[in-house]
Amino acid sequence: MFSGSLVAIVTPMRPDGAVDLEAWARLLEFHLANGTNGIVVGGTTGESATLRDAELRELTQRACAQLGGRVAVIAGAGTSSTADTVERVGWLSQLPIDGLLLVTPAYNRPTQEGLYLHFAAAAAAARKPLLLYNVPARTAVDMKPATVARLAKVAGIVGVKEAVPEAPRVRELIDSCGRDFVVLSGDDATARASIAAGARGVISVTANVAPRPMAQMVAAALAGDGTGAQRLDERLSALHRELFVEANPIPVKWALAQMGLIATGIRLPLTPLAAQYQAGVRAAARAAGALP
User: Fold this and answer.
1) Domain of 191: which CATH number?
2) Lowest CB count within 10 Å: 1, 157, 213, 278, which one?
3) pLDDT tier at 26 (50, 70, 90 boundaries)?
4) Residue of 116, 128, 133, 253 marked catalytic
């Protein structure tokens, strides 16, 4: 269920910042038509920090209804408050989702023991499989493999999205957590190497713009076709880079607007892509076949 190319999908918004549900339906169909294996709703790329609970609920409900079990639906449930995370996990578990994604608490910088207790409390409240999410570049805390290994023994915790871009980290996670524990890459630029090291796929930003090439690259890597995966990944490499020239999801939302899939809305404190970066993002999207 949690494997392949899963998209950390953007939340489409109108210029005034309101969620655009028509564009949401269009994005979901776009991914169904282009081989994406799963949809992560309300993650970092979905502007989780500024989504209201009611908006997350509606986006998730609509995704489940429209996709109808054809691909996995995973809902982002993590916050920087354990109590709020436990509450969110509780009501999200009542929806027909396939799993929950919980990021490490940002800003408060918990200890490894604090991380363990935070996720154990969330798991106790969950009624759906739970994926941990480690992204120290954004949260200012790195959940170490030893802590993940402890959490792998907690009922309901089935995997981790690891955004530390190092293949040795993936191998350490697999060695310490066991082969049944799911490790997914959280970094597009090193996803191919992570899969070669044992990851089962990627939760991808690039897949927003180039879902079919990303799905093909991941499938080739999972099948052990290193040469084919490399060839496909080379076409995506500029996009992997350019989608992070400003804070995610600024560049990816701009690219999707150029593709005609969404409007230009993004919520403050994020701002639209600066003019000096637009040519680079456009060229990368063209190289990946996403723009003419």
Assistant:
1) 3.20.20.70
2) 1
3) very high
4) 133
